[in-house]
Amino acid sequence: MTPHGGKKDATVATRPIRVVTYNIHKGLGGVDRRYRLDRIVEVLAHCGGDVVLLQEVDDGVPRSRHERQVDLLAEALEYRHHLYQPNVRLKEGRYGNAILSRFPLEDTSHLELTIPLKKRRRALVAHARVPIDHHQRTLLIINAHLGLAGFERRMQMRRILESRVIRRTRRTTPIVLGGDMNDVWATLGDRLMRPAGFQTASWRIRTFPAAYPLRPLDWIFFRGDLALRHSFATRTRLARQASDHLPLVSDLWIGLDSSPFAGTADARR
User: Fold this and answer.
1) 175, 163 in Cβ contact below 8 A?
2) Would you say 264 and 231 are in contact if contact means Cβ atoms under 8 Å apart?
3) CATH: 3.40.250.10, 3.60.10.10, 3.90.700.10, 1.10.10.10. Which one for 16-265?
4) What does the DSSP assignment read for 34-55?
5) Nearest to 45 by CA among 103, 101, 3, 104
6) Is the pLDDT assigned to residue 214 strictly greater than 90?
7) Among residues of the chain, what percentage have pLDDT more than 90?
8) Which of 44, 65, 98, 184 could staple 70 via S-S, CB 3.0–4.6 A?
9) pLDDT at 13
10) CA torsion, points 73, 36, 57, 202, in degrees to nearest 10?
């Protein structure tokens, strides 16, 4: 599979970077509850992401045939670079977050987001080296799956924003922060992200439940030398079946001087 019909790992100077965030629900269908990772593969192939943020990715769990899903997805979709972050341990196996990337990933780290008495949560952090013409730009990527309670989500997002990796990153450095934010009432953007200099790439795009989306649980935020082209939720028939979330897609230009499009957000694709 190749992104946007182009060559794998090619220069991105003439097109935006496509970022996808997708809670794959361990490969279990949102309605039929059947385990079929091939549906996730097909949906992601349709999205054509350069950087893909995944949540609820299984590793060695009986419900998903003891498969290490991050490796299978990376191989099937021909992503040369991928990372996995196990967070929740089960009697057999574990599940967590993953990043698939067309660009090399470096300086990986893990941000602890667990609130006492709540489920374990972490954010997966990496720096991508993005080729543009004859040089490279650094893109900071943060993939998070926040908690179910409002106070929990606010505490977790503050931890991310106050983390060393954010504090040591210049305001002009491109940052993409996305994932399953469980932000039912769409409050994180105005309360926390905007004051920290982040823009919302996916304002109130409904992604849950996939079969009939009512809530904007999945979000992509960005900061630095980036500009939004457009965002949308993939609403194909298969995407409505493959997981209980829809994938959220944002196209972002890296380098403001190469951003000829005004940002738009919709849910029609």
Assistant:
1) no
2) yes
3) 3.60.10.10
4) -B-HHHHHHHHHHHT-SEEEEE
5) 3
6) yes
7) 86
8) 98
9) 54
10) 80
CB neighbours (10 Å) of residue 76? 16
Maximum distance among all alpha carbons in the chain? Answer: 51
Check: CB of residue 14 under 8 Å from CB of residue 4. Answer: no
258 pLDDT higher than 50? no
CB 27 within 8 A of CB 59: no
Structure tokens at 216: 């904007």
Q: In what order do the strands lie in the sheet with 264-265?
A: 81-89, 94-101, 51-59, 17-23, 248-254, 226-233, 264-265
Confidence of residue 12 (pLDDT cuts 50, 70, 90): low
Whole-prediction pTM: 0.91
**Residue 1: pLDDT over 70:** no
Helices (runs of H) and strands (runs of E) counted in the chain:
6, 13
Six-digit token string for 260: 């000829």
